[in-house]
Amino acid sequence: MARTKKTTKKAKRATKPATPKRKAATSPAKRASQLEVMARAREHFGGTKQFGEQVMLMDELDNTVPGFVSTQSLALDWICGNGGVPQSRIVDATGDEGVGKSTFGDHLMAEVQRCGGHAWLWDTENARDIHYQKRLGIARRSAGQITSQTMEDGFELMIQLIAWHNEHDPGRPGIIVWDTPAGTPTRAEADPTKSDEMMGPAKLIRSYLRKLNQALMRSRWILCVINQTYLGRSQSGQAFKAAYGGGGIPYYSSVRLNFSHPSKQWASASAKEMKLPPVGQLVWVGCVKNRVSMPHRSRQIYIEFGQGISNSFEVFSELHGAGCIALSGTWYKFDGDGWPELAERWPKAWQGGWHALAALCGEDPELWKALLVAYHGLVKPNG
Q1: Which of 12, 70, 111, 336 could form a disulfide with 343 if both were Cys (CB 3.0 to 4.6 A apart)?
Q2: What band does 10 get if pLDDT is binned at 50, 70 and 90?
């Protein structure tokens, strides 16, 4: 009797009929039924006493950002996208000491005031230069100061402050700059007689940010947190960098900026050789989180000591990289091939890079306006 061969699994799979592919798009009749079912569900649950307005269709809920506030820095506006930081959100600026985080917060306060908004500062370090703030554009006469000594008091005051402004002056933008969580003690830390069973700083910040975030969503206010990094060591002895306050601030912030790698700048090479004090510093700023625009952008900004963030470095770098400014030896001039309009109107060459260009723009405001037009023609906010 002849032996029959056993069919293998591969042969069985090959004999199976191919399953037809699913249609990518639903039919118009099925799509209409989906809309009807969702509308009935919205009407049923939205009309109940238990849920009320908790159930809505996506088109009925406005999740758009009410507006954006410029940082007064062309580079930082490009990093954040949309021309600045978003309103009704939390912004986190983190970095080592002396890299320009407080200057960034002061520029935001000045811009909010310039746009007709309210500005409040919670400076737990109490280390602000009055004259420096005025030069940045802060109107101290109309700016508020929070003097809470503990973290609990400060958070409760900020929540009630935003609610009060929303009730008595609705629709007007505002900002609160908190500088810094590292210098803000809790009630247990400020009073040794308190119980040790109270919340730690990280858990306390997370619990209060839940409430504060809800207050911000119903307003056009911004909470800017100026946070510092510290160097820690794991149990294995490996060094790492972390920010104060735990993971609550990174989680609830919509935009996170990391300031790092400052490098001192002198007016000239001879000034550095003569050991004169530097006139500014270049700082790398990277956007490590952005929920309203493109993340992971980075740029170098120039902070002039005593004057704040200068846009001359950003404009000079962009135009020089695009070929609008030519370099011959140590002399710079506007390139006729790259930008003939500028070359015809300002044919004179100069030395000193962006420092000298800033001085030329101070003497001729029309030159600065022309450079800004050329810059915005090359750089797009979301490009």
Answers
A1: 336
A2: low
- pTM equals 0.86
Please give the share of the chain, as a percent, with pLDDT higher than 70: 89
Distance CA 364, CA 14 (A): 80
Secondary structure of the chain in HEC code, one letter for each residue? CCCCCCCCHHHHHHHCCCCCCCCCCCCHHHHHHHHHHHHHHHHHHHCCCCCHHHCCCHHHCCCCCCCEECCCCHHHHHHHCCCCEECCCEEEEEECCCCCHHHHHHHHHHHHHHCCCEEEEEECCCCCCHHHHHHHCCCHHHCEECCCCCHHHHHHHHHHHHHHHHHHCCCCCEEEEEECHHHCCCHHHHCCCCCCCCCCHHHHHHHHHHHHHHHHHCCCEEEEEEEEEEEEECCCCCEEEEECCCCHHHHHCCEEEEEEEEEEECCCHHHHHCCCCCCEEEEEEEEEEECCCCCCCEEEEEEECCCEEECHHHHHHHHHHCCCEEEECCEEEECCCCCHHHHHHCCCCECCHHHHHHHHHHHCHHHHHHHHHHHHHHCCCCC
- Domain locations in the chain as residue ranges: 63-310, 321-378
- The mean-pLDDT minimum among 22-26, 221-225, 245-249, 292-296 falls in 22-26
Q: Which two tokens stand for residue 345?
A: 């109107």
Token pair belonging to 50: 């238990």
State the CATH architecture for 63-310: 3-Layer(aba) Sandwich (3.40)
Q: What is the pLDDT of residues 339-368, one digit of tens each?
A: 788 888 888 899 888 889 888 998 889 999
- How far apart (Å, rounded) are the C-alpha atoms in residues 80 and 66? 16
Distance CA(252)–CA(235), nearest Å, equals 28
**Is residue 150 predicted with pLDDT exceeding 90?**
yes
Task: Please give the structure tokens belonging to residue 164.
Answer: 């009060």
